[in-house]
Design goal:
The structure holds 2 protein chains of 2 kinds. By secondary structure, chain A is α/β, with parallel strands linked by helices. Helix content of chain A is 29%, strand content 20%. In chain A, a hairpin with a 4-residue loop joins strand 1 and strand 2. Chain B is mainly alpha-helical. Chain B has one domain: Formate dehydrogenase/DMSO reductase fold (Up-down Bundle), CATH 1.20.1630.10. Chain B contains 19 helices and no strands. At the A-B interface, strand 34, helix 29, helix 30, helix 31 and strand 38 of A face helix 6 and helix 11 of B.
Amino acid sequence: MASDKKYWQSVEELTNSSFVETLSKNEFVKEIATDEFLGDKETLSTSSTTRRDFLKYVGFTTAAATLAACEGPVVKSIPYVVKPNDIIAGVADWYATSMADGYDFANILVKTREGRPIQIMPNKDANATTSARVQAAVLSLYDEKLRLKEPSKGGKNISWSDADKEIGAALLKLKDSNSPVVLLTGTMASPSTDKIIQEFIVQYPNVKHIIYDAVSESATTDAMMMIYGKRALPNYHLDKAKTIVSFGADFLGDFHGGFEKQYVAGRRPETGSMSYHIQFESNMSLTGANADKRIVAKPSDQIFALVNLFNTITGSNIPSKATPVDAQVKQMASELKKAGSKGVVLTGINDKNAQLVALAINKALNSEIIDVNNTLNIRQGNDSEVAQFVIDLKAGKIGGLITYNVNPLYSLTNSADFAEGLKKVSLSVALSTENNETVDASNYVLPTSHFLESWGDTQFNEVTYGLMQPTIQLLFKTRQLQDTLLTWSGNTTKYYDYLKAFATNTILGGSSWNTALHNGFFIKENTSVAIASEISIVDAAMQLSTLAKKVSGFELNLYTMTGLGDGKQANNPWLQEFPDPITRTSWDNYLTMSMADAKELGFSNPVKDNGAIDGDYAKVSVNGKEVIVPVMIQPGQAKGSVGLALGFGRTFGLKEEMQVGVNAYPLYKNSNNIQFGVTIEKVSGTHKFACTQVQKTIAGRHDILKVASLKEYKTVEPKDHHGWNKPSYVSYDHNEVEANTIDLWDEHNRELGHHFNLSIDLTSCTGCGACIVACHAENNVPVVGKNEVRVGRDMHWLRIDRYYSSEVETREEAKEKGLSRGDTYKALETEAENPEVTFQPMMCQHCNHAPCETVCPVAATTHGRQGQNQMTYNRCVGTRYCANNCPYRVRRFNWFNYANNNEFDFYMNNEYGKMVLNPDVVVRSRGVMEKCSMCIQMTQATILKAKKEGRAVNTDEFETACSSACTTGALVFGDVNNKQDKVSALAKDKRAYNVLDYLQTKPNVVYQVKIKNTNEA
Amino acid sequence: MSHYEASIREPLILGDKNYHDITEDIVKPIEGKANKHWYMAFYISLAAMLWGFGCIFYTVGTGIGVWGLSKNIGWAWDITNFVWWVGIGHAGTLISAVLLLFRQKWRMAINRSAEAMTIFAVFQAGLFPIIHMGRPWNAYWVLPIPNQFGSLWVNFNSPLLWDVFAISTYLSVSLVFWWTGLLPDFAMIRDRAVKPFQKKIYSLLSFGWSGRAKDWQRFEEVSLVLAGLATPLVLSVHTIVSMDFATSINPGWHSTIFPPYFVAGAIFSGFAMVQTLLGIMRKVTNMEDYITRMHIEYMNIVIILTGGIVAVAYATEFFIAWYTGSPYENYTYLSVGAATGPYSWAFWSLMIFNIMIPQLLWIKKFRRSFIVSFIISIAINIGMWFERFDIIAIVLSKGHLPSTWWRFEPTFVDVGIFIGTIGFFFVLFLLYARTFPVIAQAEVKTILKSSGEFYKKRSAQGIATKPAINIAGNVVINDKSDKKDIE
């Protein structure tokens, strides 16, 4: 019935007109291809998927896809499947080992995390010290750009066994033809290696071992050989010295490996006596900067002065010449005589005759300071052997050459001769940790392990026997030199077993090997007593003064910089970014020139509008060699002399950013650091320096860095009106009151729990900068590169400010001289031509009333209960207000992303470099502020350790990276609420003061007034 | 009485206008087509704005390192520009609020544009605190919003936080005040609009203004209340901005004189910018009859006064820097050290543009000259920018420790962003000039009979000027000019 009904919508439809039909057909102009989309009808009908299900699936997949898109990048952290026995994730393991890379030698402790070495600290039990370079060596381990990864032959990879077979055959052939083979190494100071080499030579009698030091002290060892019959460097017990006279010996730098620890030990004002240190020098060295009296003398004058001193002391009459410093020399002579056996003379002139004269003076003085028995073995290079070897090599007399971690093609003056000769040898093998020019020119390249991956032993001096042990699994397919030589000698013993047997049998004398290895060193009896042979020094002194008489032109004093040394670690970004303590310039070497000479020759260092310093280029010619090098005007440089650092200008294999500076080795003729007859010519071009400090003087603000003489220290009341540690006064209720008596804030009770203070002794700080690199390593401080340092964006949490004195030091002095106000500024701001130098380590002062804390709008920087000013990176929005309001300007802003950024391809941008990062410290992202945290991760670890062991924290147990790295003990960290902690007494010492105390920021960093021994003379 | 004004006072409306003339004059730029000059100016501004936005994106995408800042100089052009724009934004509220309370009728011709300028300038100013952040995407953390980050809260000690409150309050009150004043004028445009879209827009903008007596009464009341609210803001905003510096411990910033001195400086720069803008606008939009020499002179007098305060403040700062005898004060931005140091060019630019050149306004001829006023106003704008640059860059360049002395040089991004904000500002202002009634016509009409030139003359001649409007709203023909109007 119902079906009969017809529903209609229009009359046309009812009447069934064709019009409607057409319309209904055209309703969907094109049929929607649903079948095509869903599949053919058949599958659709057989499928159990209903429309509802379909929609569910669509909804689910869309939601899932959306959710998946929201997920952040996945960072995999893989747990240990089988946990290694001695590794607890998150707990650091420390290993005692030794560093010996041919130039830097130290007993060290290595901090490893999850099997990765991340920091090097001095092994204080071994009385060891670390320099910036030793500290930074841990990063060189991870240098994936420069390290050799596989043995190769003629550029093609080869297996170790094939290499051994081929080289062994070649060696045999050379042995049979009795063709000389030279094993060229740097100083290794390793008794077991010496023995292995001896055994190797027994196997191959045609092999000769020649030791080549790029920066040589061969003149001293030769002189020692002549007098004491021993090729070694004398040791100096400067801690016992009363008078130290140095002629250009940078003994706080690289002279004989440095003596800063002993030097500072002899300069403790609280003991009432300090050594009196006079430095005659041409370059401004770290040692000269620390001297009580620094006398400017160009190298030839130093030579004459040395001879004159010899004459005065010994009463001889060697012909010499009057020098401008003769008066001082006379004075020094009487000082030395007064000091008697407590006096010592050192000279850094790398000339055998000069060294002989110095040794003779010390002998005449009967000096107890110089030690010729417990000598130093860290420079064993023999210049004359090396020179003869290069001649032979060039002449084609050498059949085979095996080099180990030396780069003569870069560091020899006559590297062209070497290159020519190298082509003539039938077998050239380079055993090397890092790629370099010499490696590239050798046929066989055998990668050796880094010292942190190696076994070994060292004998830096006659007493301390150091052991070396691996702190990480081999990163690449490397093998130690010792294993290689053992293999080639046909000895199947592993070097580890060999070393153990060697040490047990010949050194340890019954002591436990395990204990020695655990300690990293073993102190043995020194039995060698050097007996001086009576030789006449007169000839040597005559020759010396004749040499100096012939000089003309400029005198060039080549030196090594605190950062790069001999250039072994030129690809280490920490060291490149490390500002030189004296010039505070990073990423460069330069010709240091006196102000007078610069004026005469038209050199200048203009400060650009962006704060950076520029320089002009000079063409330096000596002995037919020329280099073009930028000029840095150096206050305190002797007129007529120039200085230039070795170790720069390496290019082969280095990252492009690291290829900075100029190679000065071509000028290093006969390995003499003094070169005469130098001509200097200004050439066109402007050099861009990366200098971290532009203003050189303290501009009359002497309350920032207080200096007093020993006499004042002993006789004047420090807080008096004319005292040497006068506090700041402010006006309050129209009365002059001490600034620290008034306060805007209510004081917190700081007696509860721990309260950390850091004391910095300006007397002990030599400015060496080991702390800077230690801080770098501990706190993952980024490296920003030359261009960024240039515009004032270095990220160092800890810096060492260097101030030169000015001709006019105070406003009062200027007034007396009748200077106008404008001239006073100029006088105070301009450094003196021959200034005194002071250093001031500067880091976050952790003010109890911190100006940075009040201004942060988001409270990202706040004060900790233990005195630290804390920075919450996650909360920081980066207004930089805190940095502007910090009177010490120690806050560092992340201008860019310094990690995982190809623009900053230093060490946080590759998988190997990142292995050095300290997992306890976060890597900061761009846009946040950072600064010294007083190593809060270290103090917390100390507290937790004590807590776990159920005890109170021990006295002096707290440490920061900088304080543990400090060689001289200038930085002392601790808890002032523990009265036994050293820092508690130091914080109240009469030398203690706070920088800018008039601001009453109440810092937790305390400085100790610098005491100079200026009154003795 | 309210319709009587002494004939010796100069008229505020020139020519013989009637109410309808005023309406016509003011809606002309809105209803007419823009001329070539407008388009030229607009496209130049737009290009500058886009360039600036590009630089902002570059900064946000790469890092603040693309600016010329360094470890020792954490602020430079960013905060200079911020303070400069905030300062410019000061004249608007002063003119509309303070002068309203003081019943200064001359403000009526300029308050609309001055307020527009204020709002647009505050937009520019507000940009800088955000983009100068290292992580601007977290900028909302400076707002005290209850959050789920834990117990994190803002730091109420920080002057930067006070800035957030001060600027946002200022912007919102200024915006409301401006809009309130615009209501009758929008309604006027709405009533005249013929295009439906335009009518719709202006209906929305005018909030249903009907012109009833009740509307007017409320309008007057709200204006008065808002003026009362806004007046303290004139003092507070720049006081707080000055505290960014005054509460810090940098010598040269740490100065109790800063609040009054900053406020005076802000008004000084604000009036200078109003002069600059009106100098252009009265020409471009043919408002010569409404913005007269009289207006220019009055504003110049305010400029002399505030400029004088600023000059005295400079002298005080300079004196104190010397008088303290503290070596740390030697290099503050107003000291012998600054005058002779590497930034002496900035120091002397400040002195010349801000102190010396404005002294010309003591001469009546210059004070009443459009072109001289315009040039001096430009000089003051430059000078006030230098004042902020000097305060920030010179002080930061010579911090407490000499080892941290450094210099600042802007990069192209620094310059680009500054130019971009100028472009953005003019884009907004030019759009405003084409779509908004640039003069508060409703208010101006209230003084036509008392301060209009024609009526003043007639009143001086003793002719009665009673308002005569018939029931249809037309002016009753009672004199020649009205007749002409009808024809």
